[in-house]
Amino acid sequence: MEKMTTWILLLFLLVGCSPQGNKQQASESVDNEDTKVEKTAAKGKVKDKLEQQSPNLSKYETVKLEDKQEEFEIEIEYPSFSYAPVDELLSKEMQSQFKNSQKAAKEIIEDIYEDGLGTNLKYSYHVFFEKPVITDDFVSIYFNIRIYMGGASGMSQSYAFNYDLKNQQLLDLEEVLKRRDTNLQIVSKLVADELIHGDQFAEYREDPAPFTYKTSVKGETEPTVENYYAFSLTEDSIILYKQFYSLFPNAAGVVGVEVSWEKIDKATEEKKNDIVYKNDDYHFTLRLPSSWEGRFIVKEGDWNVAAETSYDFQFMHNGKEISNIFSVSVLDTESDGDEEFGPMNFIASQNGKTFVWNSIMEVPPEFWEGGELHELQNEFTHMLNEDLREVIETFTLE
Predict the structure, then answer these.
(1) Distance CA 383, CA 389 (A)
(2) pTM
(3) InterPro entries recorded for this chain (predicted)?
């Protein structure tokens, strides 16, 4: 069983390193041992050289790679556009995937027999693509993968092929966001907002979304390349794909979260207006949302007996100090962050000093129903529950 698990992981790795697959019909047969490679001819003839220089990719063929045997079944489909720069990349990638999946399938079946799991279990690996998005600037193709080895719903994976037609190069997520003058931190926050507030995911959560769901969303949408390895493009948006194991049932499979470029551009512009807090005593900086403008002051405090000092970010309304939002405390010790700090949370350690933070434990009564600031409750809780962790992540030591 240990060997079989290794091969399953290998199949996921094969998917993760790929860019590349939709439908219209085509025809070509290739015999390779027991393997049939079929290509069904669709409309249109091969483009002439002039057309290849200014490609019209609206018509394409579907290439099908198949290996159907008694114990396993492999089927991979991908488009062919009669445009060499794109077709060569897709063909090379898919042929590689096909051969590797054949090898992995045979090893998995051997392990099934060795582990005594019987002969009725059939392994299948299917790759299909959605309709390509084709513009003057790029072609974007999203691929669905279903892997079945028994069980109710099998396993899902995905990958995508994104190609810059103008510059004739593959596009990764970093390059796409760089060209838009934005970054993964901004986009991942918008993905989280969609999961928490978007109508598409309402069936999977309570209304309003509970704290536990929001916490899981933050974990699932950390701004890492691993979380967003598969994405596709439209003219108006980017769609990021992931299986959200802690949010949705396994049967939901890989889910696409679409974020419009309009929202991304707006969030990026707002980020440029962030408030920069610079502490000259201990040489650290924090970035706070522009929406905090006029809503806080920073005071040095001595309430924390375990710290040299604390810097308390206090909520303000109409020039009046209402309550603490959060504090950054400085401890006179070096730390690697492994030990417990009670109600405080580790940020960083440098030059014999450790920086920790804590937030107010509960919403003050002024914001409760019937309180004088009840109309500001949503704003205050948003600062605490939505903004604060992002603020802490911007902590930088000189």
Answers:
(1) 9
(2) 0.73
(3) DUF3298, PdaC, PdaC/RsiV-like_sf
